[in-house]
Amino acid sequence: MADQVEGTVQNVLEQESLKWVFVGGKGGVGKTTCSSILSILLASVRSSVLIISTDPAHNLSDAFQQRFTKTPTLVNGFSNLYAMEVDPAVEHEDMGSSDGMDSLVSELAGAIPGIDEAMSFAEMLKLVQTMDYSVIVFDTAPTDHTLRLLQLPSVLEKGLAKMMSLKNKFGGLFNQMTRMFGMGDDFGEDAILGKLEGMKDVIEQVNKQFKDPDMTTSVCVCIPEFLSLYETERLVQELTKFEIDTHNIIINQVIFDDEDVESKLLKARMKMQQKYLDQFYMLYDDFNITKLPLLPEEVTGVEALKAFSRHFTTPYQPLASRDQVERLEQRVSGLQHQLKEAEEELERVKRGKHRA
Ligand SMILES: Nc1ncnc2c1ncn2[C@@H]1O[C@H](COP(=O)(O)OP(=O)(O)OP(=O)(O)O)[C@@H](O)[C@H]1O
Ligand SMILES: [Mg+2]
After folding, report:
1. How far does residue 246's CA lie from ligand 2's centre (Å)?
2. In a 10 Å sphere around its CB, with 0-12 CB exposed, 13-18 middle and 19+ buried, how is residue 181 labelled?
């Protein structure tokens, strides 16, 4: 067995210079849960925190049991934690009020693949930049999406260069066209390019911040299974290629031996998990690795998220290493819980019989 030093995400909470935290990983491993909890924990040490979901499936609303929109909304029960859900693939809406302008821009955008998405991402970042949050956490859609998001700034930079060369080639043609459509100078070529140039500055600035390990880090969430291990390695390599810092891995859904496990199935799965846990610790011995237990229920609602957050800051202690008092306490509380459930069930059955 590899030497498993139990880690936590305390390093993220202590890094005061951090401005951007990306949470990535395979589908369904717990990215939304982990990013929500990270944002809750950060809110206790920072002046203001924003969590942004860029997943079109938007599940922050599920995690916090509260509806969010594309503008930051205060999370219930907090005074400094805000959440918003955006869709980077959605058409940019604020580029202009005229239909003619919109179609001209989308025509141009169509000529440069990815520029649409890049521009709405840029607009979002621009908005967020002006809002002055102390730290911003991104809950992303599965791996490829995260990686695409991180590449958007360079897509935009390339797109702009192409626009500039078009401008030089066709001279005042755009201006003539916009005048012809009666859009006036406000929507002319210079206005369009001006807007893009304005965004370029934001994008360049953010791009620089993303590559600065003092300001940006990416947390990889995974589960102890082969595909997830493989995917994590791919994500880590790509992040390194884009010069995005990453030094935290959260292994979720670990089956802990909190109760004496009798089930053959669970025993077999624990053995399987141990094999991949060993590999994670071997491959990523320079990372902070945080392990989270698989719970019998979903982690939804602020209370559940808060309760689960303790595993982010205090490392798990295997049952065997705890003292006898603690083990017995654990067992008593487990049995009490089971007793309460059985009593409630009994009451329900009795009431049902009574009515019949
Ligand atoms: N350790 C856990 N124990 C039990 N349930 C969990 C645990 N972690 C997450 N869940 C539940 O699993 C489901 C998926 O988690 P989550 O939404 O965080 O994953 P995700 O990686 O964001 O998924 P997607 O890729 O679809 O966005 C949720 O219902 C969540 O409450
Ligand atoms: Mg999610």
Report:
1. 19
2. middle
